[in-house]
Amino acid sequence: MLKRNRLSFVIKAALTLGVFAVFLFSANLILAQGVGNLGLSQVDNTLAIATQTDIRVIIARIIQVAFGLIGIVLVGLIIYAGFLYMTSAGDSTKVAKARKIITEAIIGLLIILSSLAITEFVIRSIIGGISGGVGGGGERRFVDPLSGAYGSGIIQDHYPARDAKDIPRNAKIIITFKEVMDPASLIEDSDGDGVYGNSNDKLNSSNVKIRRSSADAVSGPFVLAFAAKSADNRTFVFRPDGLLGSSAENIKHAVALAGGATGVKKANGEAAFGANFSRGYQWEFITGTFVDETPPQWQTIMPAPRPAPYDKNISIEITFNEPIDPLTGSGDSPGFSNLQVSAGSAAVAGAFVVSNGYRTVGFIAKQACGVNACGDTIFCLPGNAGITTLIKAATLSSAPPAAAFPYPYDGITDIAGNSFDGNKNSVANGPPTDNYSWAFLTSNNIDLTAPTVLKIAPDSEQPNYDAKGEVALEFSKVMLSSSLNNSNLLLHGAKPPVTSYDITVVPWWTVRNGYLDLAGAITTDSGTAVRSLVTVPHGDFLKVTSYYPEATAGLKDSYQNCYFPSKSSAASATCEATLSRPYCCAAANCGRPCAIGSSGEPYCQ
After folding, report:
1. Residue 66 has what pLDDT?
2. Residue 436 shares a structural domain with residue 499
3. Which residues have C-beta within 8 Å of that of residue 347, sequence separation ≥ 6?
4. Given 292, 339, 449, 562, which is the most exposed site by the fewest CB atoms within 10 A?
5. What is the full DSSP assignment across 109-153?
6. What does the alpha-carbon distance between residue 211 and residue 165 come to, in Å, rounded to a whole number?
7. 271 in the same domain as 349
8. Largest Cα–Cα distance of the chain, in whole Å?
9. How many CA atoms lie within 13 A of 522 on its CB side?
């Protein structure tokens, strides 16, 4: 009987130790993974609390030490109880004492495990609120701090990109918002003239902070920078007063935009970063040791020169081989001189808009001439005319290829301020040598053919997709670059069971445009580009989460026709894609993928 009791005790002790091992493993996962993405992954490389000043590391280390001590105590109690039991020699007092100790140890273990679960829940809830999560807040398996406003919130784009490396030391910091902003919340009227964005105005240091990541987030020191903006108060450019980084080593930098009621504001006075994003927005990049002295060149021009005319509602686009300064490439015509579109000797009225990660400048005329399938106005260039587009190089400074002040420069420059190299000889010669122009013809016709999606990546319902996997759409036509943004191409997410979209599981995302030839190969040749490959750079996807990219009717082709997958000639055949039925064919109201028939009409697979 005693042997049987001893065997029973050994089994119980082994099970207890097994649960304890799981407990330690779970605690380690929480510290190393669940909280590690808050900046605590460095805890494992920390030798002692005394050497640390980061409060996150100190707290995490204390928690680790506390768990370790509790573990030692539990193991000690179990060993002690086992010793009493095995040496009891039938003494009922010792047996009862051993059983009591092991019972209390198990109860203590359960209490600790419960406390651990509660602590994890509280920490994740707090972090979701203070970080803006990857999409706003709430429970998650990782956190990309203060990133959610990029895509899900008000941030449309910025330069440098998130976590970009090898950024030149003479680069500028650029931010584009989805809405019109209050310039006073981003720019300080340093010269007191009541105009925000003059050459001597600086950034609003209360709401915009540029710092080395090794610097203190609150007290700095911060990078001093001059500030300018686009005429529509949506794009803001910050020019550091001096070079970023170091000539001796790569340096990490961070840009932070303040949230809440006292932070960055929209033009209507509302907080730009409210609700889930009330802590603002922040991103990091790493500067190299070099100064950019390479002038930018044009890479693709659309429409390409050819003998045959284009339908007159075509837009004009220039894609450069690197990002350009958006303040040198955006403006209204007539009046804006860095880029010019003319029919004969007359300037064509229209607007130049920078997009595609600041690499593409598009021009749409202001003469209304029709309506697309979504009811949006279509604008046309003069019909039956010869259209000429001119790209001007900036006047050179005494240290070429840098452009001469005042800023914004009087010609196209890259982010570093190097003047446009129009003749592609790799030397900035300035105007007129480096000015570049091309011409094409228009007809009096209007193209009203809507674009369609030919391919998607990943496939719909594709399981176990890589967290960093590509999201892309191939369209049947060349798309209008300025329409390809995170306001018109959306990203939704939800954890099972899927009943509604959940912003808290959506990472940051943006949109980029490239060209494909007839064979479907990527091309930069203006003459062979016939359709667009649209990609969606994004933060890491969460595990056990479904994601739903949505191409909206805001996406347009180069003729300003909207992407309208539900449009059909028969009203009864239209449908609307929903969460439960993500597919929608113009041919039938179905819940299966669409295919394109030989006549060009979509049908349900």
Report:
1. 72
2. no
3. 333, 334, 340, 341
4. 449
5. HHHHHHHHHHHHHHHHHHHHHHH--SSS-SS-S---TT-TTBTTS
6. 16
7. no
8. 112
9. 5
Q: What is the Rg, in whole angstroms, of the alpha carbon atoms belonging to the chain?
A: 30
Determine how β-strand 155-159 pairs with β-strand 173-177: antiparallel
Q: Are β-strands 208-216 and 298-302 bridged in parallel, bridged antiparallel, or unpaired?
A: unpaired
Provide the CA 47 distance to its chain's centre, in angstroms. Answer: 35
293 lies in a domain? no
Can the peptide bond before residue 400 be classed as cis, meaning omega within 30 degrees of 0? no
Distance CA 183, CA 197 (A): 8
Per-residue tokens: 270:
């509302």
> Are residues 570 and 511 part of one domain?
no
Rounded Cα gap, residues 429 and 416, in angstroms: 17
Tokens 């209490």 correspond to what residue?
111
For 402, the token pair is: 């840098």
- Report the CATH number that the domain containing residue 195 is assigned in CATH: 2.60.40.1220
Residue 175 and residue 262 in one domain: yes
- The whole-number average pLDDT for the span 310-326 is 98
Q: Do 248 and 173 share a structural domain? A: yes
* pLDDT above 90: percentage of residues in the chain: 58
How many folded domains does the chain comprise?
5
- What local confidence, expressed as pLDDT, does residue 366 receive? 97
Determine the angle formed by the axes of helices 2-29 and 92-131, rounding to 10 degrees. 10
Q: Do the strands 187-188 and 164-167 form a parallel or antiparallel pair, or are they unpaired?
A: unpaired
Residue 335, CA distances (Å) to 157, 330, 351, 480, 540 in order: 26, 11, 10, 23, 44
Q: Is the pLDDT of residue 21 over 70?
A: no
Query: What's the pTM value of the predicted model, to 2 decimals?
Result: 0.75
Q: Are 311 and 445 in contact (CB under 8 A)?
A: yes
CA 29, 35, 39, 43 torsion: positive or negative? negative
- Digit-coded pLDDT (tens) for 231-283: 999 999 999 999 999 999 999 999 999 999 999 999 999 999 988 899 999 99
Q: If you average pLDDT over every residue of the chain, what do you get?
A: 82
d(CA 146, CA 157): 15
- Residue range(s) defining the domain that contains residue 239: 155-287
The residue behind tokens 């059983």 is: 99
Higher per-residue confidence, 40 vs 349: 349
Tell whether the model's pLDDT for residue 385 goes beyond 80.
yes
Q: pLDDT tens digits, residue range 40-78?
A: 333 333 333 333 344 544 565 566 667 667 767 777 777
Report yes or no: 321 and 297 within 8 Å, Cβ to Cβ. yes
User: Does residue 591 register a pLDDT over 50?
Assistant: no
